[in-house]
Design goal:
The protein is of the alpha+beta class and 292 residues long. It has a domain of 173 residues. Helix content is 38%, strand content 17%. It contains 9 helices and 11 strands. A 3-stranded antiparallel beta sheet has the order 1-4-3.
Length: 292
């Protein structure tokens, strides 16, 4: 199968050979990891414009939150704004003020190994809105889980306000019930990486691009990268760290992956962990009221 057209940023990276070396990709991912309060894609844009940035905020935020002003002549950095074109932010070194900047904000990570039950449950709930069912089975310890395209007419329900809504199931995810919460969480992130990177195809092209043509090693590297990035930005231990560090230390160049896709997939998952996801109307089967 032929590869479809690349996103513009991937075209740029290929033309200038940026981030193809293992060391360069690791530097980019480490940079994105340091900005958990900014969407992964926006953190990459910051890295392209000003590598080494420590903290960024809008001019208004610098004044309101930190009592700092923008230095004369400072050049703004451009990031994407939700539901709008772009926003302008400034890096810490382009600001000035009498109060010292809080050191804790330069290393904004929680203790290693923690994922809350709320974050876990919110992710499971929001997966349904993309047609993903979740179940646990008591497998052997060495087996983590899997995700497959659903081949039957299976449906699942969600409660939204006073309504029960039935949704089509497009994918079935199964995770090992014998594992601890953090291990289950990492497994879910990895499998969602496969879905949102298009490795299982796509039910609707406007959701995400069909990239099922990728080689197995390319798919696994992308899914592991998504899992690593989301986990690291949350401060959660994950097995992807060992996989990526092992690969990067052994090989000089990374597989022919889409960094654009990896970062967008990580952003989608982070939104599902932290917020309420919008319902995909394409998979709604029926809606009924709930008796009170």
């Amino acid at each position: 199968m032929q590869r479809k057209s690349m996103p513009e940023l991937d075209k740029l990276f290929n033309e200038v050979r940026a981030y193809r070396k293992s060391k360069e990709l690791k530097e980019l991912l480490d940079f994105v990891k340091r900005f958990p309060y900014i969407a992964p894609y926006n953190a990459m844009l910051l890295h392209i414009q000003k590598p080494g940035s420590q903290y960024v905020a809008s001019a208004a935020e610098w004044v309101k939150r930190f009592d700092r002003t923008i230095k004369p002549g400072a050049r703004p950095l451009i990031i994407l704004r939700p539901f709008g074109p772009v926003a302008f932010v400034f890096e810490l070194n382009d600001t000035e003020g009498e109060k010292p900047f809080p050191e804790t904000l330069l290393n904004p990570f929680r203790s290693q190994g923690q994922v809350s039950q709320y974050e876990f449950d919110n992710l499971i709930k929001n997966m349904k809105y993309d047609g993903i069912s979740y179940s646990e089975v008591n497998y052997g310890t060495a087996y983590a889980g899997l995700i497959q395209t659903n081949t039957n007419r299976k449906e699942q329900s969600v409660i939204r306000g006073s309504k029960e809504i039935w949704l089509k199931v497009l994918y079935n995810m199964v995770v090992n019930s014998a594992h601890e919460l953090e291990t289950k969480f990492s497994t879910i992130l990895h499998e969602l990486g496969h879905v949102y990177c298009g490795h299982l195809g796509t039910p609707y092209e406007k959701w995400w691009v069909d990239r099922s043509f990728l080689e197995l090693n390319e798919q696994e590297f992308e899914a592991e990268s998504v899992c690593w990035l989301v986990s690291e930005r949350m401060g959660v231990k994950n097995p992807s760290a060992e996989y990526l560090s092992g690969y990067i230390s052994q090989y000089n160049e990374i597989p022919n992956i889409s960094i654009d896709t990896v970062l967008k997939a990580a952003g989608m998952i982070e939104t599902m962990i932290n917020n309420r996801k919008e319902l995909r109307k394409e998979i709604v089967v029926k809606t009924s009221g709930i008796e009170k």
